[in-house]
Fold:
Amino acid sequence: MNIPGALYHVMSRCLPMYKLFSDDADREYFLSLLAFCLLRSGCRCYAWVLMDNHYHLVLRSGNEELWRLMKPLQMRYAQYHGRKNGRRGPLFMDRYKSIVTQDQNYLLELIRYVHLNPIRAGICRNLMELKQYRWSGHRNLMLETSEAFQDVKSVLLRFGTNDHDAKKLYCEFLEQGLAGSVADDDLITLVRKNNEGTGSGRKVSSWVIGDREFVAKALLKAEANRLRISRFEKEGAELTQIALEMAKHFKVPVESLRIRQRGGAASDARKVFAYGACRVYQAPSAMVCEYLGVGSAAVSAMAIRGKLIAEKSGIFK
Structure:
């Protein structure tokens, strides 16, 4: 769901066969892209962390919709990653995941969840080590020098009116999370499930969370901005799931749908996949292009041919 001015938790993971960030040069390039795209889109970043195969962001969108930030960020980084490693095709698993979240009750919980990722993953042993970890927004909150793109001031003001007291209370807040003295609330439980791919996209709570009034207003905003909730989002579909169904129907390996080829069952499955993903489920075209490793014109051509094949086979009936 895209709502201008909303608070989001965003997570994106690369395909299992790759490492999203292989070295510091990768991480520095990604952060330079993030800074550029934040400035261009008018979004603000409150928290972030880069892990080996995924990243997390806590963002507030500007007047533009969230995809204005995320699409160029992921597309340009994928292009860089491909050039550097001499490969073609998609890098990320489907589309980035985003949850519109109520600011009043959940912002600090999200910041804590995101910034504690390196400790929970065993990269850092404690908050002292996390303070020196270059690839997390926690370091920016604690040190005088920081990445210019992160809105450090707004975060610290949530904890105190002067930096010294704010940092102290912020660290105590993180310690509570590490000590287990605070049970995971519904938001963090949902975030974890969505990150792991076990959450149900069929529930409204998979893409907007807050009290009843907040959820109702968010849905009205989405409708007012003519931001269509597609079948893809309503039914919680994923491109990998659609691809598996196509492979099963045409009796071909699912990997063959990503390979360009002429004629045969795999070629038909690839075309019907393009049609099903784009036209039946209304998945974002950028996601389908990235999954298939081709441009939008090629996907449109495949979808046209795929429609004829699908109608003959009755696969979507």
